[in-house]
Amino acid sequence: MTLRLTGPPPGVGTPRVDVRLLESRARRVLDQLGHARSELSLSLVDDERIAELNAAWRNRDQPTDVLSFSLVDGEHASHRGRLLGDVVIGIEEAARQARRRHRGLNETVAQLLIHGVLHLLGHDHERSADARVMRAEERRIWQVVRS
């Protein structure tokens, strides 16, 4: 597995994530999903950048927690090689969620990573039946990843 991890430049107030732990967890997520040899692009971005992406791709002019850009399906799938796609995590929104839920930032980011990778692989939660399947898969993977 190859992981390309990018993040916001260090600055005052930028939430800090344990990058080594995140890389380890990303490897376990891909392994659990049968994609141990795949590549993943993972970006941690600030509110401004995730809001720009959310507006451009989902017509929602606000920050969000995670966006996924899959290369598994669609017109570019035949050119993707081992790259599954891009998962972009809004690190400031993740930090707010962590505080609201009384959880650690690293835990919250890992759960968003799982959610994002499942979207890359075609999971969705628009219909309630699909949402149940996706939640069950998120829980299954989290049990392995958090250890």
Could you explain how this protein is built, in words?
α3 packs across α4 and α4 crosses α5. The longest helix is centred in the C-terminal third of the chain and has 18 residues. The protein has one domain: Collagenase (Catalytic Domain). A four-stranded mixed beta sheet has the order 1-2-4-3, with helices on both faces. Helix content is 48%, strand content 17%. The relative contact order is 0.17. The chain is globular, with a radius of gyration of 15 Å. The protein is an alpha/beta fold and 147 residues long. α1 links the parallel β1 and β2.
* Number of helices, where a helix is a run of at least 4 consecutive DSSP H or I residues: 5
Q: How far is it from the N-terminal to the C-terminal residue, by CA? A: 19 Å
Order of helices and strands: EHEHEEHHH
Determine the CATH superfamily: Metalloproteases ("zincins"), catalytic domain
CATH topology: Collagenase (Catalytic Domain)
* Corresponding CATH architecture: 3-Layer(aba) Sandwich
Helix and strand composition category:
alpha/beta
Q: How can the largest sheet be summarized?
A: 4 strands, mixed
Count of DSSP E strands?
A: 4
Mean of the pLDDT scores?
87
| Overall tally of domains | 1
Question: Helicity range of the residues?
Answer: 40-55%
Name of the CATH class: Alpha Beta
Percentage beta strand: 15-25%
